[in-house]
Design brief:
Blueprint (H helix, E strand, L loop, with lengths): L1 E4 L5 E5 L2 E5 L21 E3 L5 H4 L2 H8 L2 E5 H8 L6 E4 L4 E4 L2 E7 L16 E7 L3 E4 L9 H7 L4 E5 L8 H11 L3 E5 L11 H10 L3 E3 L6 E3 L1
Parallel strand pairs: 3-4, 4-5, 5-6, 10-11, 11-12, 12-13
Antiparallel strand pairs: 1-2, 1-14, 2-3, 7-8, 8-9, 9-10
Pfam families: Lactamase_B_2 (PF12706)
Keywords: Hydrolase
Family: Belongs to the UPF0173 family.
């Protein structure tokens, strides 16, 4: 599968030809100024929670691409009031079968509200099972023992984990989370965008190496294949 990084926690995953975009925050992000929003095509947009640094470009991309929105009930309802019709509401613990596989919404320990202050339900993450890979997109979260349930039930090939600290886990907690979900491969997210979450890349990579984990810090605009 191909993965393209657009900054903060925004990734486009090509799952056997179905394009799934997570948490689009691109145009307000100065680090992503080279990204052309109009070149992004997707079939599904998955939102982990309602904060602006995860949903800023969601409405525009949903309307431009005709993608289906997958998010919790409260977030979906908010976007329906903005004219978005192709939606699939979920809530924590639920699973949906989509053309590329299954998506299960799992717990995340984090606050959540929408850009206008509206209630956005609870924050979440996703476990995605496809014919190619099974992966965990944690969203914004603290380290939590609930992650062990993921490792017990799924063979996780890799995990998107926040590593920026202050608002979420730091690198050390993310390495523990990787143990909990039983994966050796981490794609870092939610770091460097703001001064509060700037990290030392060399130190982070060394911490991962010492614990025999592969930490991938993608460049914005980069595409990799896993």
């Amino acid at each position: 599968m191909e993965i393209t990084y657009y900054g903060q926690s925004c990734f486009l995953c090509d799952l056997g030809g179905t394009r799934v975009l997570f948490d689009p925050f691109i145009t307000p992000n100065p680090l992503a100024s080279e990204v052309d929003l109009d070149q992004i095509e997707c079939d599904y947009i998955l939102l982990s929670h309602g904060h602006a640094d995860h949903v800023a470009d969601a409405e525009y991309l949903l309307k431009k691409t005709g993608a289906t929105l997958v998010a919790n009930f409260e977030i979906v309802s908010w976007y329906q009031n903005k004219g978005i019709e192709k939606v699939h509401p979920m809530n924590t613990g639920g699973k949906v079968h989509l053309p590329f596989g299954t998506v299960k919404m799992v717990n995340a320990v984090h606050s959540s509200s929408l850009p206008d202050g509206s209630y956005a339900g609870t924050a979440g993450g996703y476990v995605v099972e496809s014919a190619e890979k099974t992966f965990y997109f944690a969203g914004d979260t603290a380290l939590t023992l609930d992650m062990k349930l993921i490792g017990d039930r799924y063979h996780v090939n890799f995990a998107f984990l926040p590593i920026g600290d202050n608002f979420t886990m730091d690198v050390e907690d993310a390495l523990v989370a990787a143990n909990y979900v039983n994966t050796k491969k981490i794609i870092g997210m939610h770091y460097d965008t703001f001064p509060y979450i700037e990290i030392d890349h060399i130190e982070a990579l060394e911490l991962a190496r010492r614990q025999q984990k592969e930490l991938i810090l993608m460049e914005i605009g980069q595409t990799i294949e896993l």
